[in-house]
Structures
1.
Amino acid sequence: MSVSSEARIPDAPAIQRLPLLQLILVGLQHVLLMYGGAMATLSALSLNLLFNILGGAERAANNECHAHQH
């Protein structure tokens, strides 16, 4: 009997494992981007809340109304 020597089909790039250094760097990048997105969201929400507490939305609406009356 002859042993068949079939060529192995390489794994798709998404299935291949990255070298350890690249794996660590991609993981760190992921964590930093998630943290940055969370901080941007919290900053935007707190600025919006602060703006509304100080009455900025009402003042801005009143200034628009007065600007159109002239």
Note: Helices lie at 20-53, 56-69.
2.
Amino acid sequence: MVAGTGSPPQTARLQSGRRALSVCIVAYKDLTSNTRVARQAHALAARGHAVTVVSFAPPDPRLVGDRADFAATGVPKVGAALAVAVALAGSILGQAAGGPVRLAAALGGRFGQLRCQQFGLQAAKLCRGRRFDVVQAHFDKALIAAAAIREQCGGRLVFDAVELPFDRDSLPAPADQRALRLAEIAREQEIARTADQWLTVGGTLAAEITRRFRIAAPLVVRNCRQPHLAPDARIRRDLGLDGAAQLVLALNSVRAGEGVEVIVEALRHLPAHVHLAILGQGTDGAGGERLRSIAAAAGAGGRLHLPPLQPASEVIGYASGADMGIIPRQPVTDNLSLSLPNRFFEMVAAGLPLAVSRVGEIAALVDHHGIGVVFDENNPRAAAAAIAEVLDLLRQGDLKARVLAAAHQLSWDREQIAYVELIESLGQQENRRG
């Protein structure tokens, strides 16, 4: 366990006179670039609560400060022996891993596919001897670990469904791995039904979760960020752009459904002084080379830029040096259709007006706040027209003022209030029960 140097003491008391809580947030992932867990942990710790984060690797300390404790498991590794795999599948998945699924799980274990279960064992071991008032699972693959910690350490269970959970669109292709993931999903769904509260990231996703799983509406805690309203020249300097160049920024991974090919092709229809930067995962390999080829074929090879990734704590400041942002996401899966991604809030916090695709809540927020233009995400000409319109509106002055107003309205300082109140309410209920 790696402890923060200034973690709030267990005996700290809130101004209200109530006892400070002990909260565990469990995430089946490397949190180095994750900002949601970091913001939640910081918000709770700032209220005097003791917070423990269990994950593969901890969040960027610049986002959390020294107020939380971190238990880092590393990426779970599972032995190849069939006996170990069967034991893990049986003991962790329980009834969900009977018969043929248990055998499939054992076979999957030979290829390291039992990491969710192994993570659960490691997480519970790291938390042994502690007492928690609330245990929060960061998405579905953390539920098995969260349940193990709750059984051992107590606490109310919160499930943070940051996407549509238990997604069968992304099941692995091999039969044994597919069977194992289905067994995991069955167990995760059992655990989720026992949760005291669900959270999620947007209203559209909350409505679909309510409909699909027949539960009370989750509490919506959006991925709002704190405004960074002093433009930072680093990105322009890194890209070698002069004052005449106008820079459009996409905070995008290069993967299916993100629409980056459309906006690269859109450069063909834009003036030579308009440049595009794509900052995200996958731009430094084959995906980046493919985008460069598209730009070259469009006669815009010198106007596409793929800057290096930035630390999570630096993204908003770095982005603020662009003229505008663009989100070309395509609704090719349920999760993409229902999404309200981090990048929307990051670019608003950076003070950037936006051109966005027609994907549900993103487009609705842009229209509501009057901070940009919505375009057909499948049409490069439409993307180019939207970029040109936003840049033209910027010259008129009112658009920037609306973005700055939206940045304050959509700040994490405002958004965290309901989240903290929920955790405190559940924790006090647990105290009374205990």
Note: The longest strand covers residues 22-27.
3.
Amino acid sequence: MRDLLRARTRSRDLARAIAALLGLAISTGLVDAFLSGALDDFTDDDLSEVDLTGTDLVGIFWSLDGTRWPRDTDMEELRGRSRRRPPTPVSTL
């Protein structure tokens, strides 16, 4: 129990620090976003104007059809460094 309390306190402190670095006024939900991978999901993002030089792309999610990359991105090299993720099952109601 004591370790859990310590971990929660530490995660709140880290979320506040990250929110400050990102210029966010509040950090509510930031820990959940990190844990769920929401901040690693670039499957529908336009990165065409972003300088990715030296950027570690390990662990991010991207889509061949949805992610827009800078013109000089070597897609074959990027695919070679990537691992295919199985599609997320769509729930039917």
Note: The chain has two domains: 1-36, 41-85.
4.
Amino acid sequence: MAEAKPAVEIRKLSYTLDELEQVSGVGRSSIYQSISDLSLPAKKWNGRTIVLAADAEKFLHNLPPFVPGKRKGQRRVRNPAGRE
């Protein structure tokens, strides 16, 4: 009888932008913008843009923390009808 081989965990070393979008939950345009402003390092390989898994993890860990009640670009409207 043959011995069962132990399971080997295979971990991806890099992601395509489509894969990164799926595994990170970050939208495609945000990924492109982050690559463009150099906050997310990317590499080219055979005409494809890839992001190393370590760089993706570092990028995600360095995102600012969530602050409840505060939204980017949102202004507080006290009286939307213009009444006092």
Note: The first strand starts at residue 14 and ends at 16.
